[in-house]
Amino acid sequence: MEATSQSCDAGHERDTLLEKALIFNTDNSVELTKREGEILQLIVSGQTNKQIAKQLSRSERTIEFHRNRLMRKMAAHNAAELVRQAIGLGII
Fold first, then answer.
1. What is the C-alpha to C-alpha distance for residues 72 and 24, in angstroms, rounded to an integer?
2. Helix (H/G/I), strand (E/B), else coil: 80
3. 43 within 8 A of 83, measured Cβ to Cβ
4. pTM (2 d.p.)
5. What pLDDT does 48 receive?
6. What is the DSSP string of 11-47?
7. Within a 10 A sphere around the Cβ of 25, how many other Cβ atoms?
8. Torsion, CA 76, CA 77, CA 83, CA 85, rounded to 10
9. pLDDT for the residue numbered 22
10. pLDDT digits over 6-61, tens only?
11. Which domains are delineated in the chain?
């Protein structure tokens, strides 16, 4: 009986997280700098930090910095979430 209760709690937690993500995606309040937008487009196109750095003539560390800021601003924990958030916000 307790396992079923835990399963329901986990399902509810996932639903709550999904609702929060959907609410976030409908709120077009994320403001990106020109550079962040440029880097986001390159991330979406599948480029690595190293490739982006070379293309923009910047250090890989600088690209990592911008990528981390993007992820924080868009509440993403990985590249897939970053892309999903960008699509949801109509950025890409």
1. 13
2. helix
3. yes
4. 0.66
5. 96
6. HHHHHHHHHHHHHHHH-------HHHHHHHHHHHTT-
7. 18
8. -20
9. 43
10. 555 555 565 555 444 444 444 456 788 999 999 999 999 999 999 999 999 999 99
11. 2-88 (1.10.10.10)
